[in-house]
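From the shared-data thread, chain only:
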Amino acid sequence: MTTSARRFPAILALAAAATIATGCTASAPEVVEETAPVVTLGPTPTPTRTPSIIEWVEFPAYDDEPSVSERGNVVKQPGEVAGLADANGEDLLRFMVQAISIEPECEGGDAAPVPENGYFVRVDLQGEALPGLTQAYQEGGVPPVLSFSDWSAIDSSGVNVNTDPVTESGIACLTRPEMIYYTDINPGERGVGSVVLDVPTEHGTLILRLGGQDGWEYTY
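Structure, as tokens:
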């Protein structure tokens, strides 16, 4: 009995110690997994076309004896000056095709306009109207302004093209600062810009007329 009495407090002490130890044990922290954000990829942006703005250059001298085609037009090449003069040989207006390019890059990227007639041909031009054009116009026989809007075309077989080479699709190929379709160059003014013509064949002849005058033609 005596032995049992001495052990009883020890048993209580162990039980109490076990209770305290159990109460002080911290629970394990909850692990929260981070989810990577979902990124939605859109369509790849279309590269932006850089407008090709041509610059004014000095006119070269006229050809001594320009050739005339069987159609009655003066035959010219890019880089050659053309124009109209009065009875004294004084320039009234003059212009020059700087370059002709077939199937140029158009404005709009993947949504760029497509030719209505077959092929786009870009013509880069510059021109000026001299002060004497006003008096000459009043006397008759010459246009009042210089304008690059009256074009026609001949296909690669030599057949006149019945469709107008100036189309909405061709106009939409250029930005407004590039184009010179309907810009009137008045006496004392200069102009520089481009037109994109819409033609049925990849090669042929372009004809430019000024105010109903005999024209100038360019083979492309």
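DSSP finds three helices and eight strands in the chain.
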